[in-house]
Amino acid sequence: MKSTTWLIHMLLPYRRRIILALILSSLTITSHIGLMATSSYLLARAALHPPVLDLMVTIVGVRFFGISRAVFRYVERYVAHDVTFRVLSQIRVKFYQAIEPLAPARLLNFRSADLLRRIVADVEIQQNLFLRVMSPPIVALLVLSGYGFFLARYDLRFTAILAAGFLMAGLFIPWIIKSLSRGVGHSIVALKTKLNTQVADSLLGMTELVAYGQAQSQLMSVRHTNERLTDQQRRNARQTAFSSALTWMIGNLSMWFVLILGIILVEQGKLSGVNLGMLALGTLSSFEAIVPLAQVPHHLEQNQAAAERLLELIQAQPTVKDHQSMISIPKDMSLVFREVSFKYGEREPWALHRLSFKIPQRGKVAIVGASGAGKTSVVNLLLRFWEFDQGSIELGGHSLRDYSQQEARNYVGVVTQRTHIFNATIHENLLLANPEASDEEVKSAAQKAKLHDFIQSLPKGYDSFVGEGGFKLSGGQRQRLAIARVLLKNAPILILDEAMEGLDPITERDVWEEVYKLMEGRTTLVITHQLTGLEKMDEILVLDKGQVVERGKHGELLELNGVYRRLWNSRVG
Amino acid sequence: MFDKRLIREGRSVWRFLLLTISLSIGIALLAVAQAWFFSGVVSRVFLEGANLKETWNFLLMILAIIITRAIFQWGSEVAAFEVASYIKLNLRERLLKHIMSLGPLYTRGERSGELISTVIDGIEALEDYFSKYLPQLLLAAGIPLVILCFVFPRDWKSGGILLVTGPLIPIFMMLIGKLAEKKSLQQWKDLSWMSAHFLDILQGLTTLKVFGQAKNQTRVIERVSDSFRSSTLSVLRIAFLSAFMLEFLATISTALVAVTIGLRLVNGTLSYSSGLFLLLLAPEFYTPLRTLGLNFHAGLSGVNAAARIFEILDAPLQDENNDDQTVKTDIPGLSGNFRITFQDVSLTYQAGGTQVLKEINLSINSGEQIAIVGPSGGGKTSVAQLLLGFINPTAGNIQINGVSLDRISKEKLLNEIAYVPQNTYLFAGSVAENIRLGRLSAGFEDLVKAAQEASAHEFIMKLPEGYDTYLGEGGARLSGGQAQRIALARAFLKNAQLLILDEATSSLDLESEKYVQEALTRLLRGRTALIIAHRLDTVFQADRILVMDQGQIVEAGTHMELVREQGLYHSFLKEYRGEIG
Q: Which residues share a beta bridge with A398?
């Protein structure tokens, strides 16, 4: 229900256009009724051999309806689609505004690209909202009252027949079909999901399937699911066919009853025979308004489900909230973690447990450990993406909580493999770090990051597209782009978050040179599971399961002959 | 729009296709009959003053026709579904089978997503082609002709109007459709471009926040969305034009027919009942043509989907000769003593691409454990892929006991190899099902034993439902180390002679690291192994180490020999171990 109100709320700002579209849609159907009704009226009048001039008005009427239907249809489509796209645009903006504060903490569970795509699809599906859900019932009602009123001028019982037919075909049949197909719809969705999973398993896990000789049995199970899906789709198709045949039949039966009533009235002299064909054919034509109603419950369900998924995100509360009136200016660029404990959820284990360390201004500290040790959590807390549970974090002598999220982030530059490269030009990707930067500044940052020569070699230089739609950057180039961004941002605190992940040793050595330069004059925190380049660190913390198990300088840790030593010894290309 | 290969698919279900079409033609004939009885009744009541009793028989006939028509309509839709569903079922299976036969290399990388959507949505798009478009195409040609047979004998003028305007509809449809097709393709591109843009922003939200640009994106989204609306509408205007023409031709000619008949009635050259009959036939004449126009899009997307489907089906298989007589089945295989040799093996993934392997020579004897090390992109994994038969060498020869690999039954060969890939894929299913992949026939006890040997039993028992815990999307999430131990359990269960191991590159948590190492040592005991190594422990244990760089084996020997050689291996160790190595 909540989702329906939300959807209606989205439509409200465009009510004028919507009303216009509804009227045009009704007029389109009315033209159809008009064409068949006036045509048969014309024929009946002509059969009485009047002078041709007497028929002129009727002839003009026939011609008018012959043309007007197409015109109304054209304009109606235009207006309706215009409204639809406006609504979609509105939903997109609302949706973005709502989820922007949630990222990334609340979106953690929605990380997979598949889900992001669903977010896109769920917005897109609202295309049907006006065209296929809202409009058909209202138009049917308008047509019913319009033509019903026309029929009432001859006999109220005609209107009763029409209303009964509309009620049967427009409400009763969709309702029956819906209750019949309740189970089917669900099992079709479930089986489609299952088929999808199995096909994805077959393709993504093909290496394992082929290597273990299970390709054949996997194909068999896909076939089995496919057959079950077909069975359900068959049931669904039969029901749909049943409903459309029944709807069609009710339209014709209504015409039949109007005809019988008409014959009786003619017999009684209460109706002129001239009108007999007109009333019957007009009735049949008016059922055009009913046809789209059969699909309304189906589309409504889809729209509601999609809207609920959107609302779930829109109404989520961000994890980190800014306090009011916080104006803190850091005294220096030191960073202190005091007994910080943090978990991602109530029932999750500690991601960090009583973590303490201090980086003085321009100090260099590294945190090493295997994946899952809690290294990334440190970054997430520092960037205020998450709220820690116990202890305190201080930036420049003030609690981190005394800064707004944006302020805190302003002091921090991050070089990470996870840096997103946007589908835009290289120039725009760099400018992101500092929209006010001049072309010279951008160029100089790229030069310092040793990216300039590569950019120059591209056909369009700084205006070349990167990301999915354009050039693919290699691992080393991504890193350099991230470095150039940090240079442009010129933040006093630097975080290197798995910055060398996935680089081969030669590239890694090159990138380290740039990184060392970047560290000069900055407070630096290095997060890594690879142990290269750590000799220059003031302190190294070895993290395992959120706790510090060893700490000290590189040489000291090697001599300790413990975990750090083991990590050091274990890797080769 | 009339894809020959698609039509060929329809052959196997021609009975249902025929049923659909005959029922539809039956419906058209019934419509003619209904129109005839209807005009008869109205005419007799209106002009001859007949009462209800006198027209009752006619009215009952109309009622019977209405009911029969509804039944026929239901039947034709059901039959059309059968056509579509049979073809979908069949084609989906063939497509998936073909992709599987193409092997893991075909699906690697970003391609898999597109392939999945072709197997699922691409095939689904064929439903409307077969259930709506194709029958309608034949009906649009047939039914109007049937109607004309009834119109012409009564009034050649009305027949003329229908005959002239009727063909205009498909002609206009094709003309505008061609234009709209191009435009709608453009619009489709715009739409996917906008979706991609939206997705891009969502995926980069964290990066945007780090740089304080997230709030500004609202305006961008608004702007993009709005420019999309106006560009789409200008495109849609043309698409609507085709609907306009369709509608316009049908209604204006009905109006023309009505006026023509009306004038003839005034002159008395036509009876009222014939006139009304003709008027009622006019919409019946246009309906199949209009329906075809409405289903034009279904036909279009069906043909587009089919193009992609057949493109995949046309991709040639690696070794078509595998089913041939040349395959020897009496090869002793890898159960006894064996020797695998690579002779001058070169490999290029795509014609014209870079050589991944350059004239490699190597041999693996039963009982040996060989480690391959080297920088990423050096060709290490390709050696494993060749041995598994996922791809054939571009040049050179791989032999087992002197018999060329392409003459050995692939299935039989794979039976003797346990492969542990770099990234373990966990299938949607229980833990037990995931391990059972190693040997489907394995009993539960064997399964637990394999898990124990892989050091996986303990963590599995800690999962909410033990061996029945659901893995995969939405299921329990395993850490990298745990997933790897599941993969090792598969290998234990398979108990093959030859082990091919691609070690995981990402580091494991300390506990997993220990367990994986223990399990690996157990697994390697008494087996022949080819290991693509990322850990020094494994390298030390190997009988021989091959150092690969840029597609070539640059050094080979034991650890001590290679250290003495002071070559690439040596500098590798130095790179990772500082000065100590």
A: A395
